[in-house]
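Case study: EGF-like domain-containing protein.
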Amino acid sequence: CDSKPCLNKGTCSKINGLEYQCACSEGFTGKDCSDEINPCDSKPCLNKGTCSKINGLEYQCACSEGFTGKDCSDEINPCDSKPCLNKGTCSKINGLEYQCACSEGFTGKDCSDEINPCDSKPCLNKGTCSKINGLEYQCACSEGFTGKDCSDEINPCDSKPCLNKGTCSKINGLEYQCTCSEGFTGKDCSDEINPCDSKPCLNKGTCSKINGLEYQCACSE
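Here is what the predicted structure looks like once written out:
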């Protein structure tokens, strides 16, 4: 051992005669501790990670995408960070890729965009749309229209406003016009015409209505 055969701070011990044995310091091996140990030789970095020697037996792994940990053995789950907002459900696709199944009323990569059902302009015929809840909406229809989407045109004649067998005609919007049957007049044909109102019986004759526009005169003597 006097010749200091053990290199790199190895410790020499005499065994027998000229035989000796080296106790190598960390990071070295071999008969004379001349061989440097490379911790990367054992390929400690898993999942295609890249190994770099730091000092002695110390090493560092540069992990490939989707993995982490001292030896790159831990798979990263992109859903662990809860990227899907507004109660969306996250599913891992590949590596760090994920996909969100958004809850009703939301869209976008992370379900951060709120869907406005009024954006599609569902209210027809100049109706006004108001969002209620989620994908629900309500239409305030313009005059003359009704229905969920204001698609149904209101016919004012459906309510049969023309009385006494009058005929109804739609004019514009909720406007209508009645063509009254004989003997009736007025907006809704509700007023009965009295032929005696025009005083058709001359010379003090007395008028009596018979039927419709028919009348009879009782003449004076």
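For the exam, be able to explain this: The mean pLDDT is 91.
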